[in-house]
Amino acid sequence: MAAERPYAMSESFRSILCIAAHPDDIEFTIAGSVARWTREGRRVAFCLVTTGGAGTNEHTPSGDGLVPTRERELHEAARILGVNDVALLGYQDGVVEPTLGLRHDLTRVIRREKPDVVVCSDPTVRYYGNEYMNHPDHRAVASAALDAVFPSAETRGIFVDLLTEGLEPHKVKEVLISGAVPPDTWVDITDTFEAKCAALRAHVSQVGKGEWVEPLLREWAERDGKSVGVTHAEAYRRMILWR
């Protein structure tokens, strides 16, 4: 028997901001939820902190021309998911730290986008099992993103220079933290699972022909789906900051 019910986002939440480190992070983790939310008529924006320029691998052994390639792939993936608003902060891939400067930049994005919900990863998780060490960029960006949500975005006396840009304080109502251990919230992505796979396959420089994309994402989604009795799901920790 399922331990929980799938999360149903409040109808009053119309704007969602997804913050991630690298151009394919969203597609690996939360793209099924993104596709669900855009299909529900909500506005979803992406904020990618780095250029992805260090993303060389067996599919892309050279970094020559990689940054514009990854940007094109990102916009194609966003299009597949129904997202039109993409912010690129341009930080160097692989060496991000959770500095005040990064928090300032993310606070600017939050105040500009005015999201009801912010989605980011979990800065506290260093290891997943014994096979994956969480990328330091992931942890740094997530830490800065949460600090930008609270207290920076909603506090007039923090980063007062943003007021001169016309960016008034904004209070985020909920945060969904992807990759949290353990999670407490699950989004049903059964109807949008194929869109998630298609979006990740758009990152050709990172996944090549992508034969392994669907089996891997299906394994993860079926595991999370069992927690709430659905075929496919994505898991989060939910922070409720306003009622």
Describe it.
The protein has helices at 25-29, 31-39, 66-81, 100-113, 136-152, 161-164, 193-201, 204-207, 213-225, and strands spanning 15-20, 43-50, 85-91, 117-121, 127-128, 132-133, 174-178, 185-188, 233-240. Strand 2 (43-50), helix 3 and strand 3 form a beta-alpha-beta unit. The protein has a 7-stranded mixed beta sheet with strand order 3-2-1-4-7-9-8, with helices on both faces. A two-stranded antiparallel sheet has the order 5-6. It is globular, with a radius of gyration of 17 Å. It has 9 helices and 9 strands. The chain is of the alpha/beta class and 243 residues long. The protein is 37% helix and 19% strand. The mean pLDDT is 96. The chain has a single domain (15-240), classed as LmbE-like (Rossmann fold, 3-Layer(aba) Sandwich), CATH 3.40.50.10320.
Task: Name its key features.
single chain, 243 residues, alpha/beta, seven-stranded mixed sheet, two-stranded antiparallel sheet, 19% strand
Strand content: 15-25%
Helix and strand content put the structural class at: alpha/beta
Give Rg in angstroms: 17 Å
Helix count from the secondary structure assignment:
9
What about the largest sheet? 7 strands, mixed
